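User: Okay, second chain of the day. Same drill as before: sequence in, structure tokens out.
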Amino acid sequence: MPTPPYHPPVKRSIAIEGHRTSISLEPVFWDMLKAAADEADTPVSALVAKIDAERIQSDTPPGLASAIRVWLVAQRSVQTN
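Assistant: Same drill. Structure tokens below.
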């Protein structure tokens, strides 16, 4: 049975550049992140590291979980246009 779309965030640990960090995302975003990593033929941790590197370049960097959500929505937007 699929996870309901309004499920609370789920915390997972991911290694970024050799250190572990915990990220809380709703299951729908974990699913989207896994799909994006599969599409790019890269591990989820490598994709998260890429998103993290991009967010740090921002003038006002958001938190990592927020950056992942925004990146995923932006990617989906690009794919539908």
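The mean pLDDT is 92.

User: Thanks, on to the next one.
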